[in-house]
């Protein structure tokens, strides 16, 4: 707030550059205006107003997950009666109760990741929109799902990744009309927020895109570790693109060859996880992007605990590192690098479990599509 011009109520993108997408900028601006009615320190008032607004987003997120139908929860145990699919994890005690939406909401609301990361940034807003898109899709409203994806992308880029598993579901089930409705809704939702700002302040609107394109290897990424070890990369943006393309191809193979169509949440978790693994930066609040998807795609307490532990290790390490700690005798932050690898390892573990659920599902005795 103090360095962006928002403190003086400057209009984002028109009078002040922001490194955030347009809907997040609007959210920041509105909370700044609302905080102006309170006396005292403007910074404290802005923080308090923002905290209340983000709590409302989190409350909405919980309500969305309470309404999530069981069909959108990953098949990790018992029999999915509506498809006849049995997962590999019956022996692990993943009983049918875990697919009750009330337990999904508990796994989300009780997560220490929320307490640790909810007020770092404004990510609860796109999280609400992304989960809302999954709910709309599960309830057979593809147009609304697309609109929420478009709005979510206008707040943070990662909700756009949900379009890939939706496209694969539509391709496999020949749901062309649903695919077109989702895409049209996403485009219209994104344009409704972005087009007015682009027309009013094209340079301010472009700042977010140029900032992220020109960004170098930053905190939390594997590239940050490798560059610290002396490895140089000519173009991180190109490497990211290649990694995402290869991951998209792998996800497409899984969707098209699995005997049962994977859920949207399963595909969303895998592609968002891949994005986090190959991205130029991993800010500690990114763990919140993954949390609702983990709860939906892999609702098993052991996996939830492993994922939570890995994220908390990194969350603690990054703050100590930024405070000048975790440095070895030669000045190299090897302990911080290790924390990055631990976090990535737990994320890969959860991803592998979801992949196993997908390829190991059975329909009438078949485990993999020939």
Question: In a nutshell, what does this entry contain?
Answer:
With 370 residues, the protein is mainly alpha-helical. It has helices spanning 22-35, 42-66, 101-109, 112-117, 124-138, 142-155, 163-173, 176-200, 202-213, 222-228, 236-257, 264-278, 286-297, 301-322, 334-360; strands at residues 79-80, 85-86, 362-363. A three-stranded antiparallel beta sheet has the order 1-2-3, with no helix packed on it.
Number of domains: 1
Q: What is the radius of gyration computed over CA atoms, rounded to a whole number of angstroms?
A: 21 Å
SSE sequence, one letter per element: HHEEHHHHHHHHHHHHHE
Distance between the termini: 56 Å
InterPro entries: GT87
Membrane topology: Multi-pass membrane protein
Pfam family, one: GT87
Keywords: Cell membrane, Membrane, Transferase, Transmembrane, Transmembrane helix
Overall description:
The protein is mainly α and 370 residues long. The chain has one domain (6-363). It is 64% helix and 2% strand. It has 15 helices and three strands. It has helices at residues 22-35, 42-66, 101-109, 112-117, 124-138, 142-155, 163-173, 176-200, 202-213, 222-228, 236-257, 264-278, 286-297, 301-322, 334-360; strands at 79-80, 85-86, 362-363. Strands 1-2-3 form a three-stranded antiparallel sheet, with no helix packed on it. The longest helix is centred in the C-terminal third of the chain and has 27 residues, at 334-360. Belongs to the glycosyltransferase 87 family. InterPro entries: GT87. It comes from Propioniciclava coleopterorum. GO terms for molecular function: hexosyltransferase activity.
């Amino acid at each position: 707030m103090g360095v962006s011009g928002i403190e003086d109520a400057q209009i984002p993108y028109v009078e002040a550059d922001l490194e955030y997408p347009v809907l997040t900028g609007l959210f920041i601006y509105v909370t700044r205006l609302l905080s102006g009615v309170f006396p005292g320190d403007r910074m404290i008032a802005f923080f308090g107003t923002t905290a209340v607004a983000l709590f409302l987003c989190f409350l909405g997120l919980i309500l969305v997950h309470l309404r999530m139908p069981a069909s959108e929860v990953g098949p990790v145990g018992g029999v999915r009666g509506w498809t006849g699919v049995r997962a590999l994890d019956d022996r692990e005690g993943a009983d049918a109760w875990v697919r009750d939406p009330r337990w999904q909401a508990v796994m989300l609301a009780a997560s220490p990741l929320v307490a640790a990361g909810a007020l770092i940034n404004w990510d609860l807003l796109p999280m609400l929109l992304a989960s809302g898109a999954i709910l709309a899709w599960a309830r057979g409203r593809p147009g609304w799902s697309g609109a929420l994806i478009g709005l979510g992308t206008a707040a943070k880029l990662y909700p756009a990744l949900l379009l890939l598993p939706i496209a694969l579901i539509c391709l496999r089930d020949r749901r062309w009309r649903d695919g077109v409705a989702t895409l049209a809704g996403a485009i219209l939702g994104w344009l409704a927020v972005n087009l007015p700002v682009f027309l009013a302040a094209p340079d301010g609107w472009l700042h977010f895109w140029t900032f992220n394109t020109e960004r170098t290897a930053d905190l939390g990424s594997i590239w940050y570790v490798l560059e610290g070890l002396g490895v140089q990369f000519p173009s991180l943006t190109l490497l990211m693109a290649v990694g995402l393309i290869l991951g998209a191809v792998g996800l497409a193979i899984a969707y098209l060859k699995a005997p049962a169509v994977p859920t949207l949440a399963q595909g969303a978790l895998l592609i968002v996880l891949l994005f986090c693994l190959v991205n130029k930066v991993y800010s500690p609040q990114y763990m919140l992007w993954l949390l609702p998807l983990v709860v939906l795609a892999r609702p098993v307490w052991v996996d939830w605990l492993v994922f939570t532990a890995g994220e908390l290790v990194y969350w603690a390490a990054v703050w100590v590192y930024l405070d000048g700690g975790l440095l070895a005798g030669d000045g190299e932050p090897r302990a911080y690098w290790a924390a990055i690898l631990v976090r990535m390892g737990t994320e890969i573990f959860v991803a592998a479990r979801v992949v196993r659920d997908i390829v190991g599902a059975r329909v009438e005795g078949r485990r993999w599509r020939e």
